[in-house]
Amino acid sequence: MNGQTKPIKPNEVKINDPFWGRYMQLVRDHVIPYQWEALNDRVPGAEPSYAIRNFKIAAGLKKGVHGGRVFQDSDLYKWIEAAAYMLMAEADPELEKNVDQVVDLICGAQREDGYINTYYILTGIEKRWTNLMNNHELYCLGHLIEATCAYYEATGKDKLLKAVIRYVELVDKTFGAEEGKLRGYPGHEVIEMALIRLYDLTKDERHLKLAKYFIDERGREPLYFQEECKKYGNECNWLKGPHGFHYYQAAVPVRKLESARGHAVRAVYLYSGMADVCALTGDQTLQPALDSIWHNIVNSRMHITGGLGAIRGIEGFGPEYMLPNKDAYLETCAAVGNVFFNYRMFLMKKDGKYADVAEVALFNNALAGVNLEGNRFFYVNPLEADGRMPFNHGQRGRSPWFGTACCPSNLARLIPQVSGMMYAHTSDEIYCSFYAGSKVCIPLEKGKVKIVQQTGYPFDEKIVITIDSLAANHEFSFRMRIPTWTGSQFAPGKLYRYTGNIPKSWEVSLNGKKLNASEKDGFITIRKKWKTGDKITLFLPMPPRYTQADEKVETDRDRICITRGPLVYCAEAVDNQFPVRQAYIETIPENCTIKSVKNGLMKGIDFVTLPVKAVKDNGETEDVMMTMLPYYAWDNRMDSTMIVWIPQTAALAE
Which of 11, 191, 358, 618 could pair covalently with 138 via S-S, beta carbons 3.0-4.6 A apart? Predict the structure, then answer.
């Protein structure tokens, strides 16, 4: 063992990449300014946010009553976090000024004992802590903590940090197993991993202890008897039904969890917190549950896009192998949480399969949540659309905003963090976990190592790593991830297997000489005494591949999904002269065409064109060419029909 695996902070990785560079610029130039307008209720045609308005009222700067949902504060907090990451990467006085104004509002609303929550401040603070199940106090605090840590790291300003520490001290005095404290835990998780973030910043053991308390306490009785349950009296048994306490991951203590149940976002946030506590405290009693949950997800409950939460009514997990396409929910926030959970598992276990799942969820379900202009969003991410059903919270396509706007703000804070997931290290190991054109300086025990990565991933098959400079020539291990999609299946687990021709395998060379390297735990390892100028070239073949789902997935029987590299592809009406849901693939095509768009909104995106058959309106079939694009980029030009899983028979084509 070489010690704990540590990630590199996002601002320490300089992105010079056509793919992620575009997204970083999108967040900086469009997403954050647009969301600032939305949070101020200034986007025409969008549902009002109320978030900033509520804080103005709570701070005594405006008269009125609380507007929006009980968790409205969290949208503003996630915007602050996203803005902070942008400020880490590049100074922006105007953006910093806006954040400082919001910080003043938050601190102005803080009560004397440290409490901050506009819903209870404006509706009756005496009712606080009475409905932890549904009223999101600790959830909002969790996102406030995440925002605070990011903003302090970006600017060094500690006004918000001092306010948040006061609030956390109040929570610590209020909740715990000690006599005289309340026993309880949040109905919506996030504070668990947020407290770990605060501990990492402050090194205050109380924050780590409180995070562990909320993990350990979950599944005990007190949550059940908060206000929500009391009002139903003896009829509260509904909570013990098929969803009930499982919805909140509260039916059993966390160490007895064996499968993913209930609300998907809550679930993956909990698992992320469990992984953090396990890694930092060494509490290995959490590990069996984490392993069981992870295998249950990838073996029976994850869509091929990395999406989680198939069931619309509960925004959550359904029975095993229930993975609908047109009716799938797959909330953007759940994909964001899937990235967080799996990246934490990777750091803890140093196994590339977890980074593989994070990558699939990131490139497909998560990125689909925002359009290429940064001003329209998906809350729901189905794998099929008929162009008519309003699947996206009342919209048949993307929405300018939502009354519950967790997804746009969540995605805004995720994208700037991706650079921090590209490299990790121990005392004498460097892990290259995500691929993107970048520069980074990694502090190993024997000296700093500067690395330059050149690639056009996820469309480019070649990754070149150059040791740009060393503090001194020394020996260490350099590990590069070999994704699951390069082998016999697209993603880890038992759900999805390739069919058709097997392409040539990956290759790696050092200074122009091919290496006979082997993959272990999802990585190849090159250990040597390195010198400045050493160059590794990794080749990952990216032909279009054809996937079939496990037979237990009824909705995908006799259907094919096309992928290329880490990307899931779909067919959209705007690119084709026939109804795409009437197409079918009778035999796996031997050849297809890959073409990159040179100009316009879709610039730099590779489209795939392949021969298929289509059922005409008169019932006859015809041979046609079908053009497909990456799933993340659909619904950017018009609301229309879309399909991911292509039928293999005319009978299944509509």
Answer: 191
How large is the average pLDDT for residues 44-71?
95
Number of structural domains (the chain) is 3
Domain of residue 506, residue span: 423-539
The answer to whether position 364 is within a domain reads yes
Residue where a domain stops, chosen among 539, 570, 586? 539
Give the separation between CA 174 and CA 638, rounded to whole angstroms. Answer: 51
Would residue 450 count as lying in a domain?
yes
Residue 502 belongs to domain with CATH number: 2.60.40
Pair 517, 490 in one domain? yes
Name the pTM for this structure: 0.95
Whether residue 191 lies inside any domain: the answer is no
Q: 483 and 587: one domain?
A: no
Do 585 and 490 lie in one domain? The reply is: no
DSSP, res 29 = I
Distance, in Å, from the CA atom of 172 to the CA atom of 212, rounded to the nearest integer, reads 12
Are 522 and 594 contained in the same domain?
no
DSSP 399: B
Which own/partner contact pairs does 13-16 have at CB distance under 8 Å and 24+ positions apart? Answer: 13/419, 13/420, 13/422, 13/423, 13/438, 13/439, 13/440, 14/438, 14/439, 14/440, 15/419, 15/436, 15/437, 15/438, 16/437, 16/438, 16/439
Q: What pLDDT does 501 receive?
A: 77
Calpha distance 148→160 (Å, rounded): 6
Say which DSSP state 623 is in.
Answer: E
> How far from 211 is each of 255, 274, 289, 308, 443, CA to CA, in Å?
15, 9, 17, 25, 29
Identify residue 108 by its one-letter amino acid code: G
Q: Are residues 437 and 514 in the same domain?
A: yes
Strands 429-432 and 474-481: parallel
**Residues 332, 410 contacting (CB under 8 angstroms):** yes
Q: At what angle do helices 93-109 and 137-155 cross, to 10 degrees?
A: 140
Q: What CA–CA distance (Å, rounded) separates 40 from 49? A: 7
> Is there a domain that residue 14 lies in?
no
Tell which residue, 180, 109, 98, has the closest CA to residue 140.
109
Is residue 431 located within the same domain as residue 522? yes
- H/E segment holding residue 274: helix 264-281
Q: Where residue 224 falls among pLDDT bands split at 50, 70, 90? A: very low
Could you read off the pLDDT of 239-281 as tens digits, one per residue?
A: 555 557 888 998 889 999 999 999 999 999 999 999 999 999 9
Q: Indicate the SS3 state at residue 75.
A: helix
Q: Are residues 476 and 582 in the same domain?
A: no
The DSSP bridge partners found for residue 629 are 570
Provide the 10 A C-beta neighbour count for residue 387. 15
Contact 486, 541 (CB under 8 A): yes
Ramachandran category for residue 180: left, alpha or beta (phi over 0 → left; psi -120 to 50 → alpha): left
